[in-house]
Amino acid sequence: MFSCFLLPSQHSHHSHCDYSQHSHRPGYVILISVLIVGVVGLAITTTLVLLGTDFYRTSFTLEKSNKAKSLANACAYKALQTIRTDNYFLGTSTIDFGSNSCDYTVVDKGSEARELQLIGTVSNVTRRVKIEFSDINPTFVFTSWQEVSDF
Length: 151
Known about the structure:
Elements: E1 3-7, E2 14-18, H1 25-85, E3 91-97, E4 100-108, E5 114-122, E6 125-135, E7 141-148
Antiparallel strand pairs: 1-2, 3-4, 4-5, 5-6, 6-7
């Protein structure tokens, strides 16, 4: 705050103002500026931490998804070995890989045609692959090998 008062004189009234207390105002401006910069910096830091956490979760899920697809494909090779050994094999089997697993089902499609339904699971992530082939002997003749959302 500041104070002003009038000084009486002979011909005019002059005012005398004490502006010395205004010198504290720049301190408040600096303090408020520092607080604003601090809040903005905190907001930026919080945003970066949250984005980093989301990126980590997304990349971790993507890694599990890739492993699940690899398991489904590994299961395919095991199923094909089983069919090669026993041309009449039909049914379902599970292969465990530690805490992860894959399931395969061999479905008869007539003559030597078969369909393999493969499911690879890592934690809570599942990938499905469907393979169709028309012949078993002397070699497999594949008509389709693709990832599907459901069988």
